[in-house]
Description:
The protein is an alpha/beta fold and about 375 residues long. It is about 35% helix and about 15% strand. 3-cyclopentyl-N-hydroxypropanamide binds near residues 178, 180 and 266. One of its GO terms (molecular function) is histone deacetylase activity.
Amino acid sequence: xxxxxxxxxxxxxxxxxxxxxxxxxxxxRGIQPYRHIENDDxxxxxHELVVATGLIDRLTRLTPRQATDxxxxxxxxxGHLQRLVDANDTGGDGGDGGTPFGRxxxxxxxxxxGGVIRAVEAVLDGEVDNAYALVRPPGHHAVPDSGMxxxxxxxxxxxxxxxxxxxxxxxxxxxxxxxxxxxxxxAVFYEDPAVLALSLHQDRMFPSDSGxxxxxxxxxxxxxxxxxxxxxxxxxxxxxxxxxxxxxxxxHRFRPDLVVVAAGFDASALDPLGRMMxxxxxxxxxxxxxxxxxxxLCDGRVVCAHEGGxxxxxxxxxxxxxxxxxxxxEDPLDVPFGFDDLGQQExxxxxxxxxxxxxxLLGDIG
Length: 366
Ligand SMILES: O=C(CCC1CCCC1)NO
Ligand SMILES: [Zn+2]
């Protein structure tokens, strides 16, 4: 099993400064400046754990490149790209007032999108069987004409469109397990039956006005967007049931040539921006199920692109668990604090109902 791994030190240099949205510093109102929650800590520490445990030696290092203007314009409007390029020397905001970036961050955002492109192309070319792209800034909220939710470019959407053009890949399934709705990916492929956009997320967390069951795609793409909003407090039991009863059947019906996972870890039990309870063991089981389906359907071609996840102590163990599954590690790292015994980790009736509602929608995937 050859597993690709994308990481670059520059991902840690994307400067998000102090928080522009959750805690706008204002000494007159007693609001101290606080570091932007989407900072390098959690993601850099994922890499450091992968290196320190020796897992890195079982991975094939893939060097990212910057996404070109042409590749970015497969998803984004010229106006969005130009606005970011113009602000690259000064720093600015991605477009929603809550996505600050520093000098040179647009180059790093190109490297993030390019890192996912590199991972996808390596998998499609058979250079590796699967891959993990530990990129930053994240991408799944970025829409064609704007950055959003800490995302500057739609990393996964750009990589999918670039691969369809360069490698002729036909059917791609995107499975978004970030706790927030993958609205950007959904927007890009909403009318496209060749891309199945699945998103499991906390109901009305962010964006609070998207990610509903009723958002199912449009035109030829109807049925190929499938949202599963889950109630706050959903833990391993609810997530594993959602994957088993919705994600896996959807993949088997869709029969993708490639599976891309929007690997956000803010559904974890310790995340400051989510209210879920998934643990490293839960993420390991999710990864096993998705990788298992990919092995049955598309020779195991899976690419994980890192998205959100903010607790710097816990995210490394969550992401490491997924990377271990990709690499076929038989003796996984024993996590010192798992929270697997939290009350109501098992499936709850109201979570079961949410899953059942999404199950009803599988019939339109054909
Ligand atoms: O992790 C994220 C970022 C969510 C935040 C964006 C603004 C408030 C919540 N998206 O997946
Ligand atoms: Zn998120």
